[in-house]
Amino acid sequence: MQLHWIDLLIIMAYLVMTLFLGFYLSKRASKDLSSYFLGGNTMKWYMLGLSNASGMWDISGTMWTVMILFVYGLKSAWIPWLWPVWNQVFVFVFLAAWMRRSNAMTGAQWISFRFGEGRGAKLSYIIIVVFALVSVIGFMAYFFEGIGKFCTSILPYDLSFHLGSFLVSNEQSYALLICGITTIYTVKGGMYSVVATEVLQFFIMTISCFVIGYIAYTAVSPAQIAEAVPKGWGNLWFGMDLGLDWSSTPYPLVNDKIDGDGFGLFGALFMMMLFKGVFASLAGPVPSYDMQRVLSTRTAADASKMSMSTILVMYMPRYLMVAAFAVLGLVYLMPEIVGMGANIDFEKVLPLAINKFVPIGFKGVLIAGLLAAFMGTFSAVVNAAPAYIVNDIYKKYVNPNASSEKLIRYSLLSSILLVAVGIVFGFNAASLNTLTLWITSALYGGYAASNVLKWIWWRFTGYGYFGGMLEGLIISTCILFFKQPMLDLAGIEGVVPDIYLFPLVLLFSMIGSIVGTYLMPLENIEEVKNFYKKTNPWGFWGPIKQMVMQEDPGFVPNNSFGRDVFNVLVGMVWQMAQVVIPIYFMIRDQQQLAIWAMLFFVSSWLLKKYWWNKLEN
Fold first, then answer.
1. What is the CATH number of domain 5-429+559-614?
2. For residue 166, what are the β-bridge partners?
3. ω into 503 cis (within 30 of 0)
4. CB 376 within 8 A of CB 57
5. Total-model pTM
6. Tens digits of per-residue pLDDT, 528-547?
C-alpha cells in the first residue's frame, strides 16, 4: 500500500508529539514512586477516565471486534462477554470505591491491606505479583501480534531483516518499532506522560471514528448489506444454536471460521459467559492499568466516576468505527478476503478497508488514531507493570530505604525488561484470537475464586488466597500448553472454546482457596477488622461486623447490596445500548435503533438517580 506524503507527515507528527509529551512531563514523574506510577493522586477523574478509555481501545482488540462483527453480525455484541466487558459495570457501581479506600499503589500492596503481614499474607502478596507479571507478559504478546499485523497491511515499507541466522519478519519489525517508541515516552514520563498522551490519543481516535463512520455510511446502502450477509446476521437474539448460516451466500467458507471458533452452540456459550462473568466481574480488576487508574484517583467517589466515564466516552465512537469497517468489508472486500483460501484471515478486514476506502489526509489521521489506540493500551501496561517489581519486590524485600531516584531508575529498567520478555512471547504468538480466548477464559478464570472471596468472606485468609491463585495459575497454564492432549485423553472431539473449561479452573481455584483458608486459624484479626471498617463491603462479615460495631458504635455497615445489584443490571443494559446503537445506525435498522436509544436514556436516568446521586466521598 502506498501512502501519500501528507499521510506520512501526519503519522510522523503524531509520533513526534507523543515523544515530546513524554520528555516534557518527565520532571513531574521523577519526584517519587507515587508521582511516577499514580500521578501523585492529583489528577481529575474525567482525565483519568479519558486515559482509561484510551488504554482499553487497543488496535488488537479493535481488529478482533471488527472480525467478529463481520462474521457473526449483531450476535457479535454478546461475544465480548467472554471477558466479560460488563466487569466495568461492577467496578463503577461499587468495586472502584471499595478499592480506592485502601490508598494502595498496586494490587499487591492492596493485598497487604486486606491480609496484613503474616506468613499467609506474604504468600498471597507474592502470588499476586506473579499473576500480575504473567498477565502483563500475555497482554504484551497480544499487543505485539496485533500491531505487527496491522502495520504490514497499512504501511508501505518492508522492514524485515536478519539477526544472525534468524529472520525478523516485516510484521515483527514494525511491532518492534512501535513498541520501542511507546516504551521510550512511557518510561520517561511515567503516569503523567501516560495520561497526557492517552488523552491526546483519545481525541485523535474519536475523530478517526467519525471519519470512517461517515465514509462507510455514505458508501454502503442497506440493500448492499442485506445482499452480502446471511439471514439472521442483523438479529441480536439467538436460540440454542447460533442461527447463522453462510451456506446460502456466495461465501460459505465463513462457516469454517464459526466452526473453528466453536461458537455454534451459542445458547450454551451464552450461559457459560454469564456464569463466568459474574465471578470474573465480582473479582474486580486484574492488577494492571485499569486498577492503576482506580488507585490514581483522588477519592473513592472519583474512582467510581472515572470508571463510569470510561464506558460512556469509549463505546459509541469505537463501535461506530467497528461497524463502519465491518460493513465496508462485507460489501466490497469479501471476494478479496475469501480469495485468501486456506490462508484466510478475517482479522485483516480493518487494514484492508483503510487501504481501499479512506482518502488522502484522512488516511493519515485514521492510521495515527489506530496507532494511538495501540500505543495508549501498551503504554498503560508498561507503566503499571514495573510497580510490581520495584515497589512490591525490590522496595519491600530488598532495599526498603532506597532513594526515589534509585526506585525510579529501577522502574525504567524493569519496564524495558518486561517489554523485552513480552516481545519474545509475541514472536511466538499463534493469533490474536488464540491469545484473546486464553487470556479471557483461562488466565482470568484462575483469578476469579480468590478475588471474589477476598471481598465478601470474613474468614478468608492469605493462605487461602495463595492456594486459590496458585491452583488457578497452574490449571490455566496447563490449558494453554496441554489443552488438546487433555481433550484427546478425555475422548472429546472438535473445537472446545477455553471458556467451557472455566468451571474446571474455578473448581480447582475454589478448592485451593478453601483448603488454604482452613489450614491455619485467622492470624490477623486486627488487620481484617481494619480492612472491613475502612472498605465497608457487603457480604459475609458477621463476626467482624459485630466486633467493629462494638468498638465503634457510630460505624454504619454497608446495606446497599440490593441497590448495587439493581444498578449493575441497569448498567449492563446501559453498556449494551452503547454497543448496539452505532451498529444499528450503520445498518439503518431504525426500529431497533429507536428501541435501544430509549433504553439508553432510561438506564442513564436510573443510574443518575440510584447510583450517581448516592455516591459518597
1. 1.20.1730
2. 163
3. no
4. yes
5. 0.83
6. 999 999 999 999 999 999 99
